[in-house]
Amino acid sequence: MTTITLVRGDITRQSVDAVVNAANSSLLGGGGVDGAIHRRGGPAILAECRELRASHYGKGLATGQAVATTAGELDARWVIHTVGPVWQGPDSDPAPLASCYRQSLRVADELGARTVAFPAISTGVFRWPTEDAARVAVETVREARTTVEEVRFVLFDERAYDAFAEQVR
Ligand code: ADP
């Protein structure tokens, strides 16, 4: 059984096995969660991301996919980088967003991670509406077959926290 917990706060302050990064396809850093993770986690994460680009992901990481690196100086063992979809309006397909959660949990299972912290993927720079993103996130995690024991959604602001709380209750 996977327990879903909600925390309002900063994902880079969590003590978990794996922290999920709302990355962009370049894997070379960005703003929002991505910037915060690289700032607090230190250069080891970016160094591994560069190696991944040079070896397996020459064209970058595709939307909906996930890959792990060290967590550097974060209080975690791994960062799982996943690339959310950009909101394209009401016709946007939620499948790639669901895939981010599913693929991140698959990577977590491969690593043996028991506790995983997720941000609200795609709800920042990628503009996915928070309420819809929360529904996709919670439904997907509930339906996932995973050995992860705790999925912790870490929400930065009250609106995101409330949207997730609405789905979890
Ligand atoms: P994306 O590009 O997938 O939209 P962002 O990082 O821009 O990703 O934003 C995703 C969500 O993460 C937004 O709701 C944003 O408010 C939130 N966020 C930004 N920084 C942090 C942080 N340090 N911890 C947790 N959530 C954060």
Q: What's the number of structural domains? A: 1
What is the number of strand segments? 6
Helix content: 25-40%
**Hetero groups:** adenosine-5'-diphosphate
Do you know the CATH architecture? 3-Layer(aba) Sandwich
Radius of gyration: 14 Å
- CATH topology annotation: Leucine Aminopeptidase, subunit E, domain 1
- The order of strands across the largest sheet is 1-6-5-2-4-3
Structural class: alpha/beta
Q: Main beta sheet: strand number and arrangement?
A: 6 strands, mixed
Termini, distance in Å? 17 Å
CATH 4th-level superfamily: Leucine Aminopeptidase, subunit E, domain 1
CATH class: Alpha Beta
3D structure, described in words:
The chain is an alpha/beta fold and 169 residues long. The chain has one domain: 3-Layer(aba) Sandwich (Leucine Aminopeptidase, subunit E, domain 1), CATH 3.40.220.10. Helices cover 38% and strands 20% of the residues. The protein has five helices and six strands. Strands 1-6-5-2-4-3 form a six-stranded mixed beta sheet, sandwiched between helices. The longest helix is centred in the middle third of the chain and has 17 residues. The protein is globular. It starts with a strand and ends with a helix. The model has no long low-confidence stretch (mean pLDDT 97). The structure holds adenosine-5'-diphosphate.
Question: Which characteristics define this entry?
Answer:
169 residues, alpha/beta, six-stranded mixed sheet, 5 helices, 38% helix, binds adenosine-5'-diphosphate
Summarize the structure.
38% of the residues lie in helices and 20% in strands.
